[in-house]
Amino acid sequence: MSENIKKIAVLTSGGDSPGMNAAIRAVVRTCAYHNIECIGVYRGYEGLIDGDFESLDARSVKGIINKGGTFLKSARSKTFRTKEGRQKAYENLLNENVNGLVVIGGDGSFTGALVFNNEFGFPVMGIPGTIDNDIVGTSHTLGFDTALNTVVDAIDKIRDTASSHNRLFFVEVMGRDVGHIALNAGIAGGAEEILIPEEDLGLERLVDSLNKSKTTGKTSSIVIVAEGDKIGKNIFELKDYVDENMEGYDVRVSVLGHMQRGGAPSCFDRVLASRMGVKAVESILDGETNYMVGLINGKMELTPLDQAIKGKTKINLELLRVSDIMST
Ligand code: F6P
């Protein structure tokens, strides 16, 4: 392990996700385990530029593994996109004698980390934290599993009222421009249809399918709509179209929104966060930089940051087929 790394900084950036606190805790405790210092940076890259730092020891992160959000707070920094902003951030890190930076966030945050490393050669390591699960190099991003459980819980509740009133519900879920939350939570929640940006079903086919469901005896239905799906201009126009072109259903819309980002992390996310934090710190100590830690085939692996931010993770086609069969 490198003798040159004596102090590591950790920050959370972009949209928060459940498990970020658990990951900060893991970074801090791994530093303590290896007898190196750790500082927390508040408000992501904004705090890096403002020098908003706090020394963290093993006890500073007690009682947070079960907490949603991020106690370091998060931001999407415009200033860090400027050369001057990054220069200031670099100087602050040098003044604090920091030798490595762990960035917990999504692809935008990793792009910032990569640019920062290219300019100043500063060692950076990414931990993928986003509910969207849209980052190449990990089967699961931090918070995805918790968000799925939150969405499934919401669908179960909506189903109660849908079946009581014989209603058709369109439920919008997050995921930015990918459909991982929609597809997985839709299957788990027993949705009749799942609309995702990766697959264009077309409006007519949707109405046909919902009509067919009625003829087979269904009295209520739930359609999960990924926020990035483009079948209707938005979910309310989708509802209007179905209202106009389908008989006999009282149609409602429910947009789940930011509640999907909150709540206590699941067991899976807590374990994942702990493993990722250990791997991130130990990789920096091993002299690695410009990587993201991730879960691949059950193991912690490193993926170059430039690959991680390049593509979007592909939808599992088998899941699409399962969802089709289940809605029979
Ligand atoms: O990336 C996480 C996410 O929650 C997306 O699913 C969603 O599109 C976006 O962030 C919402 O961003 P904001 O919190 O800025 O509204």
Count of β-strands: 11
Please, what is the average pLDDT? 96
Structural class: alpha/beta
Number of helices: 11
CATH architecture of the largest domain: 3-Layer(aba) Sandwich
Q: Could you give the order of strands across the largest sheet?
A: 3-2-1-4-5-10-11
Q: Spell out which ligands are present.
A: 6-O-phosphono-beta-D-fructofuranose
Order of helices and strands: EHEHEHEHEHEHEHEHEHEEHH
Reported for the largest beta sheet, the result is:
7 strands, mixed
Percent helix among the residues?
A: 40-55%
Taken together, the total number of domains comes to: 2
Beta-strand fraction estimate: 15-25%
Overall geometry: elongated
Radius of gyration: 22 Å
Distance between the termini: 56 Å
The residue ranges in which pLDDT falls below 50 over 5 or more consecutive positions are none
What is the CATH C-level name of the largest domain? Answer: Alpha Beta
CATH topology of the largest domain: Rossmann fold
How would you explain this protein's 3D organization?
The chain is of the alpha/beta class and 328 residues long. The chain has eleven helices and eleven strands. It has helices spanning 20-33, 44-50, 83-95, 107-120, 144-165, 180-188, 203-215, 235-245, 267-285, 305-310, 317-326; strands at 7-12, 37-41, 53-55, 100-105, 124-128, 167-173, 193-195, 221-226, 250-255, 291-296, 299-304. The strands form two sheets. Strands 3-2-1-4-5-10-11 form a seven-stranded mixed beta sheet, with helices on both faces. β4, α4 and β5 form a beta-alpha-beta unit. Bound molecules: 6-O-phosphono-beta-D-fructofuranose (F6P). Residues 15, 106, 130-132, 174-176, 227, 261 line the site of 6-O-phosphono-beta-D-fructofuranose. 6-O-phosphono-beta-D-fructofuranose binds at residues 15, 106, 130-132, 174-176, 227, 261. Residues 7-283 form the Phosphofructokinase domain. It catalyses: beta-D-fructose 6-phosphate + ATP = beta-D-fructose 1,6-bisphosphate + ADP + H(+). Pathway: Carbohydrate degradation; glycolysis; D-glyceraldehyde 3-phosphate and glycerone phosphate from D-glucose: step 3/4.
